[in-house]
Design brief:
By secondary structure, the protein is an alpha+beta fold. Helix content is about 30%, strand content about 25%. It contains six helices and eight strands, in the order βββααααβββαββα. Strands 1, 2, 3, 4, 5, 6, 7 and 8 form an eight-stranded mixed beta sheet that branches. A hairpin with a 4-residue loop joins β5 and β6. One of its GO terms (biological process) is defense response to virus.
């Protein structure tokens, strides 16, 4: 996966190759009010992009949230609160710097988009319309860049690309992440056809759990369980 990065203040750019083998839960679940899937109508079942990120962290999140209706109380988590503050601050400052750095002709902010065909919905921080006639999602993260793009981040962008492509009828072949705790560094990520296929398959797996009430295997990484909100009931 090719990538490039830009530091807003230092105005530098470089390229590299990222791996997506590690997984980190996304602290910025800012997709607005959660709406549960319509389990009474299979064809109308809709999930959120944030549901996919939870599933990638541990598939049992989906079971506890939607099959047992046990909330996470995520609003009490520090990183979630901080991430939302970042989004509020961003509304007031540096609104146009991305356009200058990424050959962006125009952008739309805080865009809610959904796809009945793919059973997914979510909010894109910014939809960028680029000079080459393509579009790209941009996502802000209250996080440091750690020389790789985590799997949750990657598929958040892939799903956003899927939604933008369908709703705007425009090609989307790359996406951007802005790491606010790394001097607002912006990383570019390629979106491939295989990435989109993988994302569609993940959505199918999640809907299968919800509709059939399947109890998934727990994560293979026990370190994820240490701070999990479901650790006291998960067996």
């Amino acid at each position: 996966m090719k990538s490039s990065e830009f530091s807003v203040n230092e105005e530098k750019a470089e390229t590299g190759v990222e791996k997506d083998t590690d997984v980190e839960i996304d602290p910025e679940d800012e997709e607005g009010t959660a709406v549960k899937p319509d389990s009474d109508n299979d064809s109308g079942t809709m999930i959120r992009i944030s549901d996919v990120l939870e599933y990638l962290f541990c598939s049992r999140f989906i079971y506890y949230m939607y099959c047992l209706d046990i909330p996470q109380y995520e609003e009490k988590r520090f990183k979630v609160i901080k991430g939302r503050e970042v989004h509020e601050t961003r509304k007031l400052t540096n609104r146009d710097y991305v356009r200058k750095k990424l050959n962006c002709e125009r952008k739309e902010s805080e865009v809610f988009i959904a796809s009945k065909q793919h059973h997914i919905k979510g909010i894109v921080d910014e939809v960028l319309f680029l000079e080459d006639g393509t579009a790209a999602p941009l996502e802000y993260k209250f996080a440091e860049y750690k020389d790789k793009i985590f799997k949750t981040y990657k598929f958040q962008l892939v799903l956003q690309a899927l939604l933008i492509r369908e709703n705007y009828n425009i090609e989307v072949n790359r996406a951007y992440l802005c790491f606010t705790r790394s001097n607002s560094m912006v990383k570019e990520m390629e979106i491939s056809a295989s990435d989109l296929k993988k994302a569609e398959k993940i959505i199918e797996e999640i809907i299968d759990i919800i509709q059939k009430g399947l109890y998934p295997k727990t994560t293979r990484s026990s370190r994820k369980c240490v701070d999990c909100c479901y650790r006291n009931i998960c067996v």
